[in-house]
Amino acid sequence: MTSENSNTLNSVEAACDVLDGLQELGGAGVTELAKEVNYSKSTVHRQLSTLFEKEYVVKDDGVYRLSLRYLDMAAHVRSEIENYDVIKKEVDNLAEETGEVAQFATEEHGRVVYLYKSKGKSGVETSSNVGTREFLHSTSLGKSILAQMPRDQVEYVIDRHGMPTKTNNTVTEYEELVDELEEIEERGYALDNEENVTGLRCVAAPVLDGDIILGSVSVSGPSRRVKGDRFRDDLPEAVIRTANIIQLNSKFS
């Protein structure tokens, strides 16, 4: 699983793969983890021993797990996000207003990264959580961000991550995606019509600071409830208004 990039260190790459594998498995022994990350057991054991000594993992009866050290790192990363308090307040208001799940996300390394999530009184559980990474092409959050990017940057993202099929409705052709991005840029919001999760629709609007893409705000709900005028008019109006408030506070903070 080593990289062909000459600027990377194989040992560091292996450590990252081991940590990703532990997160994916929710904890594992050496044998199970070696199979998951496709490294030899000796390599995985050396990595885990080093990570244990540096307190990045813990061990209990032969099972390794990520340590609580990541909570401190996560808190630090969140403290670095400008206007986080404004984002939280406005996303909470959006969830309360719509009764659905409202979220704020940004782009990092060509993926959507969820920064805050709030659940309204009728909101349903979704697979996304703070820190979850998703593809840009299959989510309304991602598409609203892609629509603000130069086309060469969009092409770079798609070349790097591809356009995998998430549901029967996922757009998997690049030219079709570009056509949709042009529509999104013109109308100011993006739609996810069960393209990332079957049975779930989502509406999102970008949050900008001039030419800088700060992120995107969204509302998600079950397709049986998010439909018709609510999907095409009411929720878009709500997310655009919320995006504008966050954007305005960002300019004058």
UniProtKB/TrEMBL annotation:
This is IclR family transcriptional regulator. Keywords: Coiled coil, DNA-binding, Transcription, Transcription regulation. The keyword Coiled coil applies. Residues 167-194 form a coiled coil. Gene3D superfamilies: 3.30.450.40, Winged helix-like DNA-binding domain superfamily/Winged helix DNA-binding domain (1.10.10.10). PANTHER family: HELIX-TURN-HELIX TRANSCRIPTIONAL REGULATOR, ICLR FAMILY (PTHR30136), HTH-TYPE TRANSCRIPTIONAL REGULATOR RV1719 (PTHR30136:SF35). Residues 9-68 form the HTH iclR-type domain. GO terms for biological process: regulation of DNA-templated transcription. It comes from the Archaea. CDD domains: HTH_ARSR. Residues 69-252 form the IclR-ED domain. It comes from Halocatena marina. Pfam families: HTH_IclR (PF09339), IclR_C (PF01614). Transmembrane segments: none annotated. GO terms for molecular function: DNA binding.
